[in-house]
Recover the amino acids of this structure.
């Protein structure tokens, strides 16, 4: 579809939605909400289209003035200057329009489930996993997102073997989806007497949160085991079999939950994570198929892909996918300058998709 055809389609759809909403035709609350959201998405695109077409029309009007045989010299000069100025604006405005016309990730508006796990590096990896989990929690606070801890498995020295949380708010998944992968840290552990730099890693997974209606799970496909929850060092947390382990037999995905004292609540949390993992696995498969021929892809979301290094001695953070290095390690871990990395990743992804011809 050409750019002009895309523009016509958007303008027609905006008019159609506005007519429906203004007609007073009875509709369900869900349908009304859906149309209102679509209109909110399509309006800025339509406004940009009218802006680009307005520039084009103004240039044509100025050319018409010049073409008139009886136009005086001053008017011709003014028209020529206007053409030059308007023409210089068109490339930037068309680029902005093309970005708005890029197909949106259907999951961008979803909430997200964040999972952080310690990787290679023992206690130091667990401490780093805790640092990352805290970074995203502080980022969520800055954005006004709700950060609800689902599960934390502590090491007893302030680190996390693994931790999970639900992050709810506006465009959560859109902002966090490029964070999935292996995060590497280089620093001198506090317990290292020789002052040697150690390298360890933690794995981050950002999954779009899904509802029952998004993915159907048959009870017959589940094996549910219950057991007694335990804390760091194996100490008993409670004396009932409240912890839950759910195995999805077709995919082999296993989820355990023991943070709640209620077996029912643990099962509900486990099912939320399970749905997200199954959905994410299918999403990753589809994305891999779409991106098979794409060069310069920002990241596949592969959990084994090393995406970023945090170097404490030099105070720098390097994202290897786009070769971006910032000497703002403290601010990034504080959940502040992380926006600079995310914005750069989003821009690179947009550029890659534009290069594909939309």
């Amino acid at each position: 579809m050409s750019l002009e055809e895309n523009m016509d389609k958007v303008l027609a759809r905006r008019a159609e939605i506005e007519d429906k909403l203004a007609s007073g035709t009875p509709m369900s609350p869900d349908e009304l909400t859906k149309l209102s959201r679509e209109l909110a998405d399509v309006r800025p695109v339509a406004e940009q289209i009218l802006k680009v077409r307005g520039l084009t029309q103004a240039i044509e009007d100025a050319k018409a003035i010049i073409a008139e045989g009886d136009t005086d010299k001053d008017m011709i000069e003014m028209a020529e200057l206007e053409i030059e100025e308007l023409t210089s604006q068109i490339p930037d405005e068309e680029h902005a329009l093309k970005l708005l016309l890029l197909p949106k990730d259907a999951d961008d508006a979803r909430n997200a489930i964040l999972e952080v796990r310690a990787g290679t590096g023992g206690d130091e990896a667990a401490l780093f996993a805790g640092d990352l989990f805290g970074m995203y929690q502080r980022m969520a606070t800055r954005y006004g997102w709700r950060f609800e801890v689902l599960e934390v498995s502590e090491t007893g020295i302030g680190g996390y073997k693994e931790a999970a949380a639900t992050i709810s708010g506006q465009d959560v998944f859109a902002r966090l989806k490029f964070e999935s992968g292996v995060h590497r840290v280089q620093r001198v552990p506090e317990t290292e007497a020789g002052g040697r730099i150690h390298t360890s890693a933690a794995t981050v997974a950002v999954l779009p949160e899904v509802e029952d209606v998004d993915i159907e799970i048959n009870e017959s496909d589940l094996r549910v085991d219950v057991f007694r929850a335990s804390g760091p060092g194996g100490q008993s947390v409670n004396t009932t079999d409240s912890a839950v382990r759910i195995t999805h037999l077709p995919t082999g995905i296993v989820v355990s939950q023991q943070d709640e004292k209620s077996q029912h609540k643990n099962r509900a949390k486990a099912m939320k994570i399970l749905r997200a993992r199954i959905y994410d696995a299918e999403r990753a498969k589809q994305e891999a198929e779409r991106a098979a021929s794409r060069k310069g892809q920002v990241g596949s979301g592969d959990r084994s892909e090393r995406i970023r290094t945090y170097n404490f001695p030099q105070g720098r953070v390097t994202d290897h996918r786009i070769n971006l290095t910032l000497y703002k390690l403290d601010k990034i871990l504080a959940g502040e300058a992380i926006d600079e990395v995310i914005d750069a990743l989003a821009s690179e992804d947009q550029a890659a998709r534009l290069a594909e011809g939309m």
Q: What stands out?
A: The chain is about 45% helix and 20% strand. The first strand starts at residue 112 and ends at 118. Residues 232-237, 293-297 have pLDDT under 50 and may be disordered. Residues 29-67 form the longest helix (39 residues).
